[in-house]
Write a structure and sequence with these properties.
single chain, alpha+beta, 2 domains, 3-stranded antiparallel β-sheet, about 40% helix
Length: about 270
Amino acid sequence: MLEAIRRSEHTGENRCWPCTVVNVGLVACAAAVVAVVSPFLALLLVIGGGGMIALRGYVVPYTPRFAPRLVERLPWDPFHAAEIGPAEPDSLSTEDVDPEALLDALIEAGVIEAEGERMALERGFHERWREEMRALRDLTDRELATAARDASEAANAAETVEGRKRTHIVLSDGTGDPMAKSWLTRPVAVAETAAVRALSGTTLSRKEATLAAGLLRMFLEECPVCDAPVHETSESMCCGGGRTGNRPPRDVLACEECGDRLYTFPE
């Protein structure tokens, strides 16, 4: 029975602490109000609410959409500051890219179909990409790190680094230069590695495929790892967001279930 209630995508190492803290506070406030009428009912509310938070990650529906935004108003970030790796995931390539030139190359290669200002993935490529993602999502972190290294045109080394909330796959050129490292979250590693593999049958070179993998993430419709729907939101409402400094929060694609950021739209 408990397994039917449990939501692994929101608990354990996937737990979103802003969501958890907000829900604990709401349950505590509700229990305090109910306790005025009935201490027994307040106790039941605490036990029931605490159990739901422990098993499901939160009680209040749509918490991953609003809890990070509430926490963003705090004068400091107690949840992301100690996290290892960047708040925004890197890409397979560390090189600067020209998005317009890449889009033109993808259109010319038949990967993207353009009709006026509307762009969409070519159906055959879309299916190949999805098949590759389904194959990669079952790999262990170490196996995925090796696959990502092999997909990258420049990486010579790969390792996994465990943080407080998530594991990063770190690619490098093997020289030890920290500026030459790419920190990938698991969803991004799956999406980009699968994209490079799916692009292997096109006219794009290996380097072009590696550069284009990051751009293709903007066309994701489902999370590469949990297959939940992807929605456009703000980085201040994304569980993997963290502080945005003095600039306004940017629009991102994020998984509706796990909250992981999958793509950041240019400002």
